[in-house]
Amino acid sequence: MIIILNFGSQFAHLIARRVRDLGVKAEILPFDVTAERIKEINPEGIIFSGGPSSVLSKGSPRPAKEIFNLNIPILGICYGHQVMTEMLGGKVVKGKSREFGKEILSVLQKENIFKGLKDEEIVWFSHGDQVEKLPKDFIVTATTPGCKVAAYKHKAKNFFAIQFHPEVTHTKNGKKIISNFVLGICKVSKDWKIEDISKNIITEIKQKVGKDHVLVGISGGVDSLVAATLLHKAIGKQLHAVFVDPGLLRKNEVTSVATLLKKQKFDLHVVDASKLFLGRLAGVTDPEQKRKIIGHTFIEVFEDTIKKQLKQYDIKYLAQGTIYPDRIESAEPTKHASKIKSHHNLTLPDKFGFKIIEPIRDLYKDEVRKIGAVLNLPHDMLWRHPFPGPGLAIRIVGDITEDRLNILREADSIYIEELKKAGEYEKIWQAFVVLLPLRSVGVMGDSRTYDYMVSLRAVDSVDGMSADWHKIPTELLEKISSNIVGKVRGINRVLFDITQKPPSTIEYE
Ligand code: XMP
User: In this structure, which residue's CA is closest to atom 22 in ligand 1?
Assistant: First the structure.
């Protein structure tokens, strides 16, 4: 097993993900775990994650010093690179400028973690501080024009450090670097297999739930569908599925999902709560407020549905399709990590009456899809683009009204339809339209218009944690744009978003 010490990075879980992709078990531990605990676990390697702190600040996180005496290979990434420097006697200074984004790395030693790399590699940086002086017995192994010590290693021991992030997809050969460390240096065996995971989850659900009844919320997305199917396989009739229509779903979504689940013989209750949701969201423009209101209202509707439609069952559990990235990005801000968004699945009121069960909480999106395939779910459903819990509410920047929802629904369905027709849809991780709160002047026929503008988002990603904008052919973009403007009343301008995550996020709110 490989242990990742988390110094508060948004990417610590991405590192774990990359290690799991190699077929190796990975576990994330807090940075201050004791050396004794690490000895007990007896990992084959340790990775120090990045983090938002500066090693130059008082009280910034440090791992236990004895970790360096355990004779276990260590790879320091970003903050981990700097903390290793400081603790072993080198020097870190404040850089003249922040290095942020893609850079060309000159690889000085193409061995060990850099085995098989080229002389120059594209890597992704995000740092302010720099290593100025190496600890004794360490040598520089890679450099960039802005960062003299972009990577280094110990002359004899298996200690390596890199200033850039190999875990994000922007680093072209990042996987290779992690694989060189995990398989080449740490020599771990590959025994983490996706096929066994679904069996284990089903067994765990059976053991946990026993004879109790479970309520599962269906959102229409892949995650809740896979979670519900695993539960259905494990406990059959003890599972009750509620599909709340918050009035924030895409065109025709309620009907298509409900039809699929009924075919699979789910005890399904479809609840139209659109009036309640839209009433509560009226006039709310703050994204976190929207997410909180939606999260709380969902729970209320579930409770109400149980009272009215499921009172004959003794429901003890609420199941959710929470996946690993939802948990990371909803993390409460701590001294060493900042909060990005509250994913609505986790924004539960304190006095919540159920126990929570989250069958796929440790999985990433692509793992969820692989499990879905093992469970024989229809290809189309599994390969639908992810759709966020708060739905179209976070794709309407500003006020949410029926009118705006309808405008967005129409535009979105044209966009998706055109992508499908052109064979582009399945090449894209997630594509959708966002309605902006801006209006601009246009001319249609011979008349002036003063209408909304929409932004088309299309991103390539592996797990939603980092993303690049998808290069849609320009002719197709033009077709989509003229179709939207021509067919959807209320829109006279179409923009195409060309921002990566980070620094943006995929959704707009
Ligand atoms: P962001 O916008 O954070 O999105 O870059 C990353 C991925 O997560 C989805 N997303 C959500 N999923 N509940 C969910 O179940 C949520 O509240 C939520 N917010 C964002 C988003 O669509 C993307 O796939």
Answer: 388
Active site residues per annotation: 78, 165, 167
Pairing of strands 147-154, 138-144: antiparallel
CA 304, CA 126: separation in Å to the nearest integer?
47
Rounded to two decimals, what is the model's pTM? Answer: 0.66
Cis peptide before 246 (omega within 30 of 0): no
Q: Please tell me the predicted confidence (pLDDT) of residue 339.
A: 64
Q: What is the mean pLDDT of residues 336-345?
A: 61
d(CA 444, CA 4): 58
Q: Which residue has the tokens 């097993």?
A: 1
SS3 361: coil
Radius of gyration of the chain (CA): 25
Collapse the DSSP code of 124 into the 3-class scheme (helix H, G, I; strand E, B; otherwise coil) and give the result. strand
CA angle 335, 5, 137 (to 5 degrees): 115
Dist CA 190 CA 322 (whole Å): 26
The two three-digit tokens of residue 201, written as one number: 């989850």
CA 64, 177, 426 angle in degrees (round to 5)?
Answer: 120
Nearest CA to ligand 1 atom 11: 388
Pull the structure tokens for residue 313.
């069952």
- Whether cis (ω within 30° of 0) applies to the bond prior to 502 is yes
Looking at the chain, how many residues does it have?
509
pLDDT in tens, 302-320: 888 888 999 899 889 989 8
Instruction: State in Å: Cα 236 to ligand 1 middle.
Output: 29
